[in-house]
What we know:
By secondary structure, the protein is of the alpha/beta class. The protein has 2 domains: 4-120, Cytochrome Bc1 Complex, Chain D, domain 2 (Orthogonal Bundle); 126-206, no CATH class. Helix content is 24%, strand content 16%. It is built from 7 helices and 7 strands; from the N terminus they run H-H-H-H-H-H-E-E-E-E-E-E-H-E. It has helices spanning 7-17, 57-60, 68-76, 78-81, 95-107, 118-121, 198-203, and strands at 135-141, 144-149, 154-158, 162-166, 179-182, 190-194, 204-206. Heme C binds next to helix 2 and helix 3.
Amino acid sequence: MRGTGDVQTLAGKGREVFGLCVNCHSMAAGDHRSGPSLRDVVGRRAGSAARFARYSPAMRNAGIVWSPENLDSFLRKPARFLPGNIMVFAGISSARERTDLIIYLTEAKPDERNAPGSSVLKRADLKQAGPETRITTITYCGDAYNVVTALGVAHRFWEFNLRFKTDGTSKGPPPGAPALIQSGSSGDRAYAVFAAPEEISAFVERVCPPAGERR
Ligand code: HEC
């Protein structure tokens, strides 16, 4: 048995293990990513996080309330514990790591900024995007997109390296002001993030040669 005085340090270890989850989960309330927010997950009915619309039927109809015990079984082998669930995660074989992680999920009310990996994975608030990020025009010519930011700087991408995304949450860009976010480290690929899907094709102009190269 572990005394309660240990909880902080154990939660600290659990926070490290939570690094396996941060690609898909946040501990901030209502911050759903590819998976639902895990804030207050212990004691919550499985498949019931408010405004998370992408649960599998298996999770929605699991008919369980998350407890330290069933979380331990689930996190050991998600696919075996709940066949048909869509969480792409093989499981954690170490009982010790699972225990620390579950203490973290139960006890910690962590500040998301302190979570491991979150400096990379924390989503920027695109409502606050600066002029170097705010896109003013996107033109398409040949096999390339030419993206001009509010600073007047043009960025050219091979069409396969510019990905279009939407973020309709409170952190997404304002309507009509998509944001350019670098992806990867090489600088030749990026995301253009829009407030809504309807904006995308309306925003992209088919112009040859690209603006700035016309004579
Ligand atoms: C690749 C993305 C991904 C990773 C990595 C991942 N999850 Fe998930 N998780 C999901 C998705 C998606 C769901 C919803 C599954 C479904 O509906 O079948 C989910 C569901 C859950 C649930 C059920 C939540 C609820 O509201 O009922 C828990 C608990 C959970 N994950 C914990 C974890 C923990 C802890 C880790 C890290 C050890 C982790 N997950 C890693 C994507 C992921």
